[in-house]
Each structure stands twice: as C-alpha cells, then as structure tokens.
Specification:
With about 240 residues, this protein is mainly α. It has a single domain, classed as Up-down Bundle (Fumarate Reductase Cytochrome B subunit). Helices cover about 60% and strands about 0% of the residues. Helix 2 runs antiparallel to helix 3 and helix 3 packs across helix 9. The longest helix is centred in the last third of the chain and has 34 residues. The N terminus is likely disordered. The structure holds protoporphyrin IX containing FE (2 copies). The site of one protoporphyrin IX containing FE (HEM) has 21 residues, from helix 2, helix 6, helix 7 and helix 8.
Length: about 240
C-alpha cells in the first residue's frame, strides 16, 4: 500500500474518529447508535406489554423512542454518509437474484438481500410505532393520538399493532439468524463493524471509505424529529376510554 493511501486511511474524522492503517470506517456513528438503541427500545416496548403491572407509560415512551429512531434512520438513508444511503445499498430484483445465485460478490455496505430485510424492518417498525399512537387496550389505556380517530378506527389500528408485532419478531429473528450464519458459516463478521464502524481496509476501496459521521447533521435531524413528535403529541385532543 502506498504512502498516500496509508495517510488517507489514517486521517482523523471531524468527530475525532481515527482509522488505523489496516481498517477503514464504513458505518457512521449515527447508524450504529440508532441500531443498538433500536434493539433496546424494541425489547423495552415488548417487555412493557409482557410484564405484569402498570407499565403502559413506559410502553409509550419506548414506542416514542422507536418512532424517533426509525424516522431519523429513514431520513439518514437520504442525507447520511455513503453506506447509510438507500441509494448505495438498495438494489434492483435482478441484482438480488444474482446475489442469491452467488453470481455477484458481496458489497462493502449491506448486501442486496440484507437490504430488503432492512427496508422491511424499518417499514414495519414505523407502522408499529405510528399505529401505537392511535391504539387502545379496550379498558382504559390509549395512545396519545387516540382522540384524533373514531373508536372503530382505533380498534382497527390496535389490531394491526398487535398482529404486526408477530411479523416484527419473525423479521428480527431471521435478521439475527442471518448475522450468525455469516459469522459462523461464511466466516464473515458483520457484527464487529456494526459495533466499531470499521472493516478491514483491504476490503474497502478508497472511494467507499467515509471520512466523517456527519454527527451535527444527525443530531439536528434527531432533534427535529423529536421536536415534531412532541408538538404533535402535546397538541393532540384529550381523550380517554373507559369500558368496564
Ligand atoms: C430489535 C432488534 C433489531 C433490529 C430492529 C435490527 C435492525 C437492523 C437494521 C435496521 C439494520 C440496518 C442498519 C442501518 O443501515 O441502519 C441492521 C443491521 C445489522 N444488524 Fe440488526 N437489528 C436488531 C438486532 C440485531 C442483533 C441482536 C444483532 C446481532 C446478532 C444484529 C446484527 C446486525 C448486523 C451485523 C447488521 C449489519 C448487517 C450488514 O453488515 O449488512 N441486529 N439491523
Ligand atoms: C408510541 C408508541 C406506542 C404506543 C402509544 C403503543 C400503544 C399500545 C397499546 C394501547 C397497546 C394495547 C393493545 C391491547 O392490549 O389491546 C399496545 C400493545 C402492544 N404494543 Fe404498543 N404502542 C406503541 C409502540 C409499540 C412498539 C414500538 C412496539 C414494538 C416494537 C409495540 C409492541 C406492542 C405489543 C407487543 C403489544 C401487545 C400486543 C398484544 O397484546 O398482543 N408497541 N401498544
């Protein structure tokens, strides 16, 4: 590897992220933070419905976190760094089939098949958290936007909210199984880069390396999405349901 190349890999990112000579930054910090926070928030949302006791306010809080994270990740798919962008990893069906047949090699970022699962998970989590806002538990708990819809509509959205969760469990299980398959069968550790952000430099062409996590932009997006949600929730009409 030439001296210029080494210098380029060793460059310090704007947020002080430093690649060593043999690693290159692929996943920016927002992608990684969103991923692992999403894991915690989804488990939190599930646990707060499964546990005995009055956990509904926490179910709603975890739900808000899921909604804010997923919305920010979707916007990041248009405004984020190279590998975070949908345009860099979402492929046409032909490429997905060729990937399945082993005709095309994997990519530095998400592979064409993984990309489909990622889109599906983001879409399902978005619908899950939005339907939760309008849901009711047939007794006295309601989502914060329940007052905007009729009881029949709320019941329909609640039913979707309950059914969709099972599909989320299926998708996440397949996703985790795929990550373990790559790790143990294909000897390709996708997990470590999702934690550290780095992949071995020899696998990452110079044009595909990222220099900065664009943290300021991600923070601005997250704050805007959070602020908008707070405004929507706080300005919603008061509503309660009492069916005894
Ligand atoms: C509720 C749980 C989870 C959800 C909703 C979830 C969702 C996602 C999403 C949306 C991505 C795309 C990342 C991005 O570009 O922003 C991703 C990537 C990834 N996830 Fe998860 N994930 C979950 C749990 C896990 C767990 C437990 C593991 C560990 C086994 C894991 C391993 C990975 C890996 C390795 C990638 C990167 C795949 C690649 O290199 O293409 N995920 N996940
Ligand atoms: C702000 C967002 C959310 C609100 C306000 C909300 C609200 C609700 C309400 C009112 C119920 C009661 C339905 C019933 O038992 O009849 C419920 C159930 C449930 N929610 Fe949410 N939810 C939100 C987000 C989420 C998220 C993000 C997840 C998971 C990813 C989730 C998973 C569940 C599960 C597993 C149940 C139990 C379903 C069942 O009993 O079969 N919720 N939610």
């Amino acid at each position: 590897m030439g001296e210029t190349a080494v210098n380029e890999i060793s460059r310090v990112g704007k947020e002080g992220e430093r690649a060593s000579n043999d690693t290159a930054l692929v996943w920016d910090l927002p992608v990684r933070l969103i991923h692992w926070s999403l894991l915690v928030a989804v488990i939190g949302s599930w646990l707060t419905r499964e546990l005995e006791g009055d956990w509904f306010s926490w179910h709603t809080r975890f739900g808000y976190v899921v909604l804010i994270l997923v919305t920010t990740r979707i916007l990041w798919g248009f405004l984020g760094t190279h590998h975070a962008r949908f345009s860099s990893f979402v492929r046409d069906p032909k490429t997905v089939i060729e990937y399945l047949q082993g005709k095309t090699r994997g990519t530095v970022g998400h592979n064409p098949l993984g990309a489909l699962m990622i889109l599906a998970m983001l879409a399902m989590l978005l619908i899950q958290s939005v339907t939760g806002l309008f849901a009711n538990d047939q007794v006295f708990e309601t989502g914060p936007l329940f007052g905007h819809v009729s009881i029949e509509m709320s019941d329909r959205l609640t039913s979707l909210h309950k059914q969709l969760f099972d599909w989320i469990v299926v998708a996440v299980s397949v996703h985790v199984a795929a990550a373990l398959f790559y790790l143990f069968v294909r000897r390709d550790n996708l997990l470590k880069p999702m934690i550290t952000g780095y992949k071995p430099a020899e696998l990452v062409p110079h044009a595909e390396r990222i220099e900065s996590s664009k943290l300021w932009l991600a923070t601005l997006l997250l704050a805007t999405v959070g602020g908008l949600l707070a405004w929507i929730v706080l300005s919603a009409p008061e509503a309660s349901i009492y069916i005894f």
